[in-house]
Design goal:
Blueprint: E1 3-8, H1 14-23, E2 28-32, H2 39-44, H3 46-64, H4 80-104, E3 108-111, E4 114-118, E5 121-124, E6 127-136, E7 140-142, E8 155-156, H5 158-161, E9 170-174, H6 178-189, E10 193-198, H7 209-221, E11 225-228, E12 232-236, E13 239-242, E14 246-248, E15 251-254, E16 258-260, H8 267-270, E17 293-295, H9 306-320, E18 334-336, E19 341-346, H10 349-354, E20 359-365, H11 370-375, E21 382-388, E22 394-401, H12 404-416, H13 422-425, H14 435-443
Parallel strand pairs: 1-2, 1-6, 2-3, 6-17, 8-15, 9-10, 9-15, 10-11
Antiparallel strand pairs: 4-5, 5-6, 7-16, 12-13, 13-14, 18-19, 19-22, 20-21, 21-22
Bound molecules: 1,4-dihydronicotinamide adenine dinucleotide.
1,4-dihydronicotinamide adenine dinucleotide binds next to helix 6, strand 10 and strand 18.
Length: 453
């Protein structure tokens, strides 16, 4: 055998699996079909979108906040081209970083598309390579609607939206999920009129309902128009048709979710099966129908999140090395990098009800947090926590507000480690910090209640 492990795909699931397996003493190769390492996350996903979110946020803050802070900026303008160049240089830095990490960890990079010829052998271009174990981490691609031909220019997925040449006057986004709201924010801040069409009757349908409601209010204030409970029946260049309405659009962004990607791997030839939704069928140890062929990340199971894939990557490498490990999916956080940020971990209140778990909630508004008062007068935003009243354990945390992406880690650590709410309650939170809002939300679960409201 040429290698102990061949990882197929170099996204946040694949590259982390390769590094971890190498650290555990295995001879590792990683196959990548694209010219750069890093997969969707680094090349056309998390990293470029966060780079553009930063640039557009800075411009927007200067336009609307500078004066409030006594800063005179005169006339303000931006260059989308330069913003895109900066974004590209960020991508470049990160993808090169993985090259470096692979060299450091003595991982062989195989460039090309991997196709199984038998359960222990793949072809990469003309090259035949064999391994004792395989980890499939081929990710996902944007889902599309049958009547909406994507041209990545006028009708785009997130990939095209990250490369637009000009800011559309009217941007219609189909899908009020993470991508729709993040990329809608980028172009909204740069001047687009943004209309978001959502099939469900609320935005961010997977989040806690209280968060969705406040988020809708905040985004409307920022200029978003929403069409909720709306079905897109047809679309063409320039027009989106709903049941009762036609919306004009210069650019249409289709952000209705992603689907697992395993095309061209030759899985049918070796008997590796897919489930009804197109995910590779795996057991609880990430094993496919062949116990030495594993699948992780977006191609294996939801939620389709980079850090979930990276966590599975560490666990699968340890399983191959003979260690025992699992992923606690309840402790996987979900973050939306809008302004304010939105973050969630564990059960929503709706889910706790559905599961008949005895729970108590507490919600503390950022309006009563002193740090927030020094940086913004945004009246909305809160930390909401859910506690199981039988066990006193934290079972959910939902935040809309400043630094939610970092604050959520208190909830992640509590849920991952099955901690009682007293673990956060007794921890001294620095003043003045946003994290005091998490502490206060926990105080709200006690008999005495909040201090600052
Ligand atoms: P999503 O699943 O978050 O949202 C898609 C939305 O589209 C849902 O609200 C859904 O109800 C709606 N929808 C579906 N079909 C529709 C239709 N025909 N008409 C109107 N609405 C429709 O998917 P999204 O935003 O495309 O993101 C894809 C994946 O990438 C997600 O799994 C997401 O978690 C991940 N991602 C994560 C990011 C982060 O962690 N910050 C950033 C970007 C993407």
């Amino acid at each position: 055998m040429d290698f102990d492990v061949i990882v197929i795909g170099s996204g946040p699931a694949g590259y982390v699996a390769a590094i971890k397996a190498s650290q555990l003493g295995m001879r590792v190769a990683c196959v990548e079909k694209d010219p750069t390492l890093g997969g969707t996350c680094l090349n056309v996903g998390c990293i470029p979108s966060k780079a553009l979110l930063k640039s557009s946020h800075l411009y927007h803050e200067m336009s609307v906040q500078a004066e409030l802070h006594g800063i005179e900026v005169g006339s303000l303008s931006y260059s989308l081209e330069k913003m895109m160049q900066r974004k590209n240089s960020v991508i470049n830095k990160f993808t090169k970083g993985i090259d470096y990490l692979f060299k450091k960890n003595k991982i062989t990079t195989l460039s090309g598309r991997a196709t199984f010829v038998d359960p222990h052998t793949i072809m990469v271009g003309e090259k035949k390579v064999s391994a004792k174990n395989f980890i499939i981490a081929t990710g996902s691609v944007p889902a599309s609607l049958p009547f909406l031909p994507i041209d990545e220019e006028h009708i785009v997925t997130s990939t095209g939206a990250l490369r637009l040449k000009s800011v559309p006057k009217r941007l219609v986004v189909i899908g009020a999920g993470v991508i729709g709201l993040e990329l809608g924010s980028v172009y909204g801040r740069l001047g687009s009129e943004v209309t978001v069409v959502e099939y469900f009757d609320r935005i961010l349908p997977e989040f806690d309902e209280t968060v969705s409601k406040v988020a809708e209010k905040v985004f409307k204030r920022q200029g978003f128009t929403f069409r909720l409970g709306a079905r897109v029946t047809k679309a063409e260049k320039g027009k989106v048709y709903l049941d009762q309405e036609v919306i004009e659009a210069d650019t249409i962004l289709v952000a209705i979710g992603r689907k697992p990607y395993s095309e061209g791997l030759g899985l049918e030839k070796i008997g590796v099966t897919l489930d009804a939704r197109g995910y590779i069928s795996i057991d609880s140890a990430f094993r496919t129908t062949h116990p030495h062929i594993y699948a992780i990340g977006d191609v294996a199971c939801p939620p389709m999140l980079a850090h979930k894939g990276s966590k599975e990557a560490e666990v699968v490498a340890e399983l191959i090395a003979g260690h025992i490990n699992t992923v606690n999916y309840l402790a996987v956080p979900n973050v939306v990098y809008t302004d304010p940020e939105i973050a969630s971990v564990g059960l929503t209140e709706q889910k706790a009800k559905e599961l008949a778990i005895p729970y108590k909630t507490s919600q503390f508004p950022f309006a009563a947090n002193s740090r927030q008062g020094t940086v913004s007068h945004d009246p909305d935003g809160f930390v909401k926590v859910l506690m199981n009243t039988d066990t006193q354990k934290i079972i959910g945390m939902h935040i809309i507000g400043p630094s939610a992406s970092d604050l959520i880690m208190e909830g992640v650590i509590a849920i991952e480690n099955n901690l009682p709410m007293s673990a956060i309650l007794h921890a001294n939170h620095a003043h003045p910090t946003f994290s005091e809002a998490v502490h206060e939300a926990i105080l709200g679960l006690t008999k005495e209640g909040f201090i600052h409201i």
